[in-house]
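During the no-cost extension, the postdoctoral fellow (Dr. R.K.) reprocessed legacy sequence entries with the updated structure-token encoder. One reprocessed record is reproduced below for audit purposes.
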Amino acid sequence: MTRRRTLTLPSWLPVDAYILALVGTVVLAALLPARGTAAEVAGGASTGAVALLFFLYGARLSTAEALDGLKHWRLHLTVLACTFLVFPVLGLASKGLVPYVLTPELQAGFLFLCLVPSTIQSSIAFTSIARGNVPAAICAGSFSSLTGIFLTPLLAALLLGSTGGGFSADSLLKIVVQLLVPFLAGQFLRRWVGGFLTRHKKVLGLVDRGSILLVVYTAFSEGMVAGIWSQVTPARLGALLAAEAVLLAVMLALTWYGARRLGFDREDRIAIQFAGSKKSLAAGLPMASVLFGAHASLAVLPLMLFHQMQLMVCAVIAKRRSRDPEPVRDREESGGEYEKSDGKRGESQSQSQSQSGAGPLSDPAATVTS
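Re-encoded structure tokens follow.
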């Protein structure tokens, strides 16, 4: 049986096809923004699409299997600390770049990208390529995504406040209604709808991607109508890219060398680096549309740019790690907490899941675009 590859990054074009679709959607919103009645229809459809996304996410996420991975709790706590502690601290430090490097609106988007959870599928794919601890990457990404559904809105309320372009208590209520309630409903109905979702995984993957494209179109249409894109000059865009490159470089170095100082072995450090340095576009876009309203286009721009940057950089790192010599020391001798035999058995099973995309903890977008 031929396996479908999860990660497809041509050497001559290291750009994910879905990113190109997102860029095309932004261009469409710039040329033909939704106005009047069309804007109301698009807004209503976007709201429904966000709710559907998080219902499907809740229905797919196997909480029982995620909790089973708690035996490697030091690794998971390290990833969570990187995602929801170190990243936000660096995001707060970016306030020093205002107004000379970033505008207040771009800085708010930069801070928001630091608050969203990590990816699942792309972390698994890169960890597998680099010959890292795939079961740990699955669980770490799942914990991060599950925690982010609750923690990201709370951190946004605490750290962004009124600077978030309309963020308020009403926005927090929208988060509960549009995100948490559908997610919990999906978790509750998982035992009845899980089989259906598995049988129609490919079709529902297209629904996921189409829903996110609709959210992007609606957000950027509102931004065009409100005229907020006049604030983004080429110089500001270049400065944003430079700031994000520094952010990614700092997190990649910190997760790799910091994990070594904490006593993790090579396989665990690979999982920590890829799960702890990345941000989920699939989770961040719907949240931003609820939190920022008409300012969502500027809020998601840093996340979209960072997402593509992390894919390109991590693809190179994963390929280089795959050429590393096999480690000589056993996992037990270098601080790993999995038993070697269990880790190998779990890794073989999880590599099969990550290659086929059929694992129970896969991202809603089902590819590295998460």
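Confidence is low (pLDDT under 50) at residues 9-13, 329-369. The CA atoms of residues 28 and 106 lie 22 Å apart. The remaining legacy entries will be reprocessed before the final report is submitted.
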